[in-house]
Specification:
The chain is an alpha/beta fold. The chain has four helices and six strands, in the order E-H-E-H-E-H-E-E-H-E. About 25% of the residues lie in helices and about 20% in strands. It has a six-stranded mixed sheet. Helix 3 packs antiparallel against helix 4.
């Protein structure tokens, strides 16, 4: 009997891979670390899950992330990645370092966006949920 180990998630829609990070110059080292050159978000972001249901999405700003030293930036990105992996509803995530912007697509569940945003705020205190201004 042989043991099998798969690093791929059972569903291609499950967020279990590394957070996709865009916005830094492409070098051999950055390619190895998962940093990729940016292409339009509308070409990468899914709009429906595997069952055809529409996905929800939200943005979070992390001010000053791109100005931080490399090690500190990687630490924050790893915290973001760990938070996102804790939620099975997360389907897609993209970090744009030029804009200090995190885009997250999720399966619909009442309160999931606030749950993720609160957890993110706890682990990355400078993160801010982007939303409409209320009076």
């Amino acid at each position: 009997m042989t043991a099998s180990c798969s690093i791929m998630p059972k569903s291609p829609w499950a967020y279990r891979s590394r957070l996709v990070v865009h916005g830094r110059p492409q070098t051999p080292r950055s390619a190895a670390q998962g940093l990729e050159p940016g292409c339009p978000l509308y070409e990468r972001v899914p709009t429906r899950d595997e069952a055809g249901h529409l996905l929800g999405d939200f943005m979070m700003l992390i001010p000053g992330l791109k100005e931080r030293p490399g090690a500190e930036c990687r630490l924050i990105i790893s915290r973001v990645d760990r938070v996102l992996k804790a939620f099975p509803e997360v389907v897609f995530a993209d970090m744009n370092l030029r804009l200090n912007l995190l885009w997250v697509s999720v399966r619909a569940r009442p309160g999931v966006i606030l749950d993720i945003a609160c957890c993110m705020k706890f682990h990355v205190p400078e993160a801010m949920l982007v939303g409409p201004k209320t009076s």
